[in-house]
Amino acid sequence: MIAYVINPGTSGIKLACATLEPSDNPALPGKLRVQLDRTELPLAQPPCVADLPKLSQAIAEITAGWPVPHAIVGRGGMIGRVGAGTYRVTPELAQYAVQGQGGASVMNLGGPLALALAETRGVPAFIVDPQSLDELLPEARETGVMGFAATPNSTP
């Protein structure tokens, strides 16, 4: 399986072509071999929603010579309280990522960028373990400050 990985940051967008193959060891059938070919799209300033068309085009050009992918995976973002996992990016999710909770954050561009590239390649787009992941047990929310409980996006 081949997956492209898109990880937007403030100074650049990290890109990888991940080749996943089953283990050669029959005793470890669930173990995968992963080969990553990495590159980066450097940016002069942190990207924003208005930059999506330009960034999508630049990523398409950079990945044009890569093998045909089975999926495109983007960095998750602040999409609300969700459990750990992999989520398919739909146009609605991509829109919410840039307009909803934390929409101005660079990390929220991963899903929309993945979707834009996936649509041109005819494959599905996903995000994995968004930053708004919420799996704390009640006792892990205790902060030591009376009346203040930790949430996924708070610090005491």
Structure summarized in a few sentences:
With 156 residues, the protein is an alpha/beta fold.
Low-confidence stretches: none
Amount of helix: 10-25%
Rg, nearest Å: 17 Å
Q: Can you write the helix and strand succession as a string?
A: EEEHEEHHE
Tell me the structural class: alpha/beta
Q: What is the first-to-last residue Cα distance?
A: 42 Å
- How many strands in all? 6
- Outline: globular
Number of helices: 3
Q: Biggest sheet: strands, sense, closure?
A: 6 strands, mixed
Rounded mean pLDDT score: 86
Question: Which percent band covers the strand fraction?
Answer: 25-35%
* Order of strands across the main sheet: 3-2-1-4-6-5
**Quaternary structure type:** single chain
Core attributes:
single chain, 156 residues, alpha/beta, 21% helix
Structure, described:
The model has no long low-confidence stretch (mean pLDDT 86). The longest helix is centred in the C-terminal third of the chain and has 12 residues, at 110-121. With 156 residues, the chain is an alpha/beta fold. Helix 1 (52-62) packs across helix 3. The chain contains three helices and six strands. The N and C termini lie far apart (42 Å). The chain has helices at 52-62, 91-99, 110-121; strands at 2-8, 12-22, 32-42, 71-75, 86-88, 125-128.
